[in-house]
Structures are given as C-alpha cells and as structure tokens.
Amino acid sequence: MIRDVQQINSPEVINGLKELAPALIVSIRFGGILKEKVINIPTKGIINLHSGILPKYKGVMATFWAMKNNDNKIGTTLHTIDDGSIDTEKIIKTSTALVNRDKSYLWHVLELYKQGATDISGY
Known about the structure:
Number of strands: 4
Number of helices: 4
CATH topology: Rossmann fold
Distance between the termini: 17 Å
Helix content: 25-40%
Order of helices and strands: HEHEHEEH
Low-confidence stretches: none
CATH class: Alpha Beta
Shape: elongated
Largest sheet: 4 strands, mixed
Strand content: 15-25%
CATH superfamily: Formyl transferase, N-terminal domain
Radius of gyration: 15 Å
C-alpha cells in the first residue's frame, strides 16, 4: 500500500499505521522528521532513500549541493531510520553516478532515482 502523508507524526497517521501494522516503511523524498512513535511501528524498520552521498551531503537538496560544489560524482544513499536524527543512521547502500555537465539538475535527480529504486527492491 502506498500513502502520501504530510503530517507523519500526527495521532491520526500514527493510529492508521498501527492498524496497517506494516513490516517495513520506505521513505523517499519526504521532508518530515519521523519521531519515535512512528519509528517503532514497523517490525522490520524504516528505510530512506536519500538523494545524496552520506555522510558528506546530509539534509535537503544534496544532489544540488554536490553539483554546486563541482563534485564529479553524485549519488543516493539507502539508509535506516532508527531515531529522529537526520541522515545519520546505518547506511545500507550508496549508489553513485558521474555528473554530466551538459544535463540539468532535474535530469540528474531523476537518473539517480532509477538506481535508488533498484537498491530498495534489493533490500
């Protein structure tokens, strides 16, 4: 089941998640910070596909910052969410790609998520 949720830590969402009793929650491009009540619900945990190479590029728009800093390589990091911190948990896999200066930022982000989706499916 896929749900688009904006207020992940709200009592309504927490109750809904408890009713679903998910084994695993996958977070992709979600701007909220998950709190303990949500983190403790899925039996196999929560994984996040981050659009940057951790630990160098934490937080939002990591691909943008890597390109702005003229890095030759960008990537995604699949990692666990074990607490309320941001992009600091156990890294499962990092996938990288070379920057193509003839292509846009959006093109790069979309290209990265192709491999990121494969990384998730292999988890």
